[in-house]
Amino acid sequence: MRTREAGEVFGPRMTLFADVLSVGLATSVACLPLVTAPAALSTACAVLRGAGQDRPVTAGRYAVLLRQRLRAGDLLAGAVALGGLLLFAADLALAGAGLPGAPLFAVTAAVIGACAAVVGLRACARPESLTDWRTAVRGAARDAVADVGGSGLVLLAVATAALCAWMLLPLAFLAPGPLTLALTAVDVRRSAAVSPQ
């Protein structure tokens, strides 16, 4: 990181934090149609990954990249994610209705849902998600198993974003920024660990 210039009020870390929040707000807006959520998160991760390569991290760059992304494969990924979320909600509703074996079913559904969320979010953070979702999901599944610590960090990031949104509803619109920053950091950490020295 560069040092603070003379007369500069905020340092580079504060600038990156502001950029993360602006990308998070743009991601929230892009996620509103729901089927665009995977493409929106993937694009945010790509924009934030660019910070390490001296590319601008701005909502404008995010919007330009997102416009190039909304193709049939991205919308299909969003439909699959939305369908999985609806199925998970229906399973939990059935477990809450008092079916026999409901507590065990609810725990099993929660574990499966958490694993699916980790793989899906790690897939959004992978660079392959920009062009090929299948490759990204396969790589994310391998990473989720091989890097259990990173998967735990992803779950912790999701829990933190959900808690912030629950405590103060307007934070829900900013939460995707720090969440995508965490997803990108976990992916970069994993890539650095497996790349040859």
UniProtKB/TrEMBL annotation:
Q: Superkingdom, according to UniProt?
A: Bacteria
Keyword Membrane listed: yes
**Membrane is among the record's keywords:** yes
Write out the transmembrane intervals. 20-48, 75-98, 104-124, 145-169
Q: Which PROSITE patterns match?
A: PROKAR_LIPOPROTEIN
Keyword field = Membrane, Transmembrane, Transmembrane helix
- What is the official name of this protein in its record? Uncharacterized protein
The organism's taxonomy opens as: Bacteria, Bacillati, Actinomycetota, Actinomycetes, Kitasatosporales
